[in-house]
Amino acid sequence: MKVINTRPETSDLLIRSILREDLKKRHASDHKVRIFEELGVQHGTARVDIAVVNGILHGYEIKSDKDTLDRLPEQIKEYNAVFDKITLVVGKRHLHEAIKIIPDWWGVVIAKINGDSVVFNIIRDEEFNKDQNNISIAKLLWRNEALKILKENGEAEGYYSKPRSAIYEKLARTLDTKTLSNKVRETLFFRPNWRLDVPLMLNGD
Predict the structure, then answer these.
(1) Does 3 score more than 60 pLDDT?
(2) CA-CA distance, 182 to 170, in Å (whole number)?
(3) β-pair partners for 60
(4) Confidence band (pLDDT; 50, 70, 90) for 123?
(5) How far apart are the C-alpha atoms of 9 and 125, rounded to whole Å?
(6) Is pLDDT of 1 > 60?
(7) How do the domains of the chain map onto residue ranges?
């Protein structure tokens, strides 16, 4: 006898839309915050589903019941090099397997269907990342943005015509991780015309 699973399943689209609104409400009192969708890291080799810039860079990766975990191991490597904090938002179907794969410092939120919506329950709080990579952080910048930061630090001479890889390497050597991260977050916050960006929020400013 064939068993039919009638349990409602979460989808990426449904989780994403509810999560985006949830994050906007959660950060409504932040002095300065920007929320990106599909933020590319490592020049787009991976794209985190949602990223919040508000003094730190916090990535949210969605794995709904209808998704697979096939890409998660590679995504972990890419995200670990860049984000200050990371949270996995996962459907019940993948919860136990996903927890075995992700680092202990990643946050975990389970997403469950509730009528026509989704509810989120925190399984594990996220912690700060201790293994970021300067070049990977620099690669969040566009070429002209990276050059601008080098110029501000008096290190751009001889790099205006060089390939972007050389520019990122120079930037990674010039600034320590904390300073570079601050510069990148500030640049992302004020980046114009970001096609998949939730509207800019400058609360109380």
Answers:
(1) no
(2) 17
(3) 50, 87
(4) very high
(5) 24
(6) no
(7) 12-124, 134-190
Q: Of 15, 64, 20, whose CA–CA distance to 39 is shortest? A: 20
- Cα–Cα distances (Å) from 129 to 47, 84, 85, 108, 114, in that order, read 18, 5, 6, 15, 32
Q: Residue 79 and residue 136: Cα distance in Å, rounded?
A: 9
Taking the alpha carbons of 68, 11, 140, 179 in that order, is the dihedral positive or negative? negative
Nearest alpha carbon to residue 49 among 155, 202, 196, 157:
196
CA dist list (Å): 160 to 34, 35, 43, 148, 170: 29, 31, 19, 10, 12
Selected residue with higher pLDDT from 64 and 32? 64
Residue labelled with tokens 């001479």 = 157
Distance CA 112, CA 119 (A): 5
Quote the CA–CA distance of 108 and 3 in Å, as a whole number. Answer: 30
* Whole-prediction pTM: 0.89
As a whole number of angstroms, the distance between CA 70 and CA 72 comes to 6
Question: Is 88 in contact with 120 (CB distance < 8 Å)?
Answer: no
Which residues lie below 8 Å from residue 64, measured CB to CB, with a gap of 6+? 9, 10, 11, 12, 14, 15, 90, 91, 111
Helices 177-190 & 143-152 angle (0-180, nearest 10): 120
Q: Is the pLDDT of residue 111 over 70?
A: yes
Residue 95 has a CB neighbour count (10 Å cut-off) of: 17
Give the pair of three-digit tokens for residue 34: 């920007």
